[in-house]
Amino acid sequence: MVRIPLLAAAGAALAALLAPGSSVAQDKPPLTVGAIYVGSVNDYGYNRSMKDGLEEMKRNIPGLKLIEAENLPETAESERVMEGMIQQGAKLIFATSFGHQQFAFNLAKTHPDVYFEHAGGWMQAPNFGNFFGATQAAWFPMGVAAGKMTKSNTLGFVVGLPIGYAIGNVNAFEMGARSVNPQAQTRVVVTGGWADKAKEAAAATALIDQGADVVTMHVDSPATIVQNAEGRGIRSIGFQSIAARQLAPKGWLTGLGFTWGPFMTETANSVIAGTFKPAMVRQGLGQGMMAIAPFGEAVPDEVRALVTAAADRVGKGFNPFTGPLVDNTGVERIKGGESWGGDKMGNFDWYVEGVIGKAK
Amino acid sequence: MSGALVLGVVASAVMSGTSLLYATLGEIVGERAGIVNLGLEGIMLIGAATGFAVTALTGQPYVGLAAAATAGTAVNLIFAYLVVGRRANQLASGLTLMFFGLGLSALEGRPFVGALIAGLPKVRLPGLGPAGLGGGFMNDDILVYLAVPTALLIWWLLFRTTWGLRLRAVGESPSAAVAAGLDPARLQYQALGLAGLFGGIAGAHLTLALTLTWAEGMTAGRGFIAIALVIFAKWNPLWAIAGALLFGGAESLQLQLQAAGADVSPFVMNMIPYLLTLLVLILWGWNRQSAAPAALGRSFVGVE
Question: In which domain, by residue range, is A119 found?
Answer without folding.
Answer: 32-133+260-283
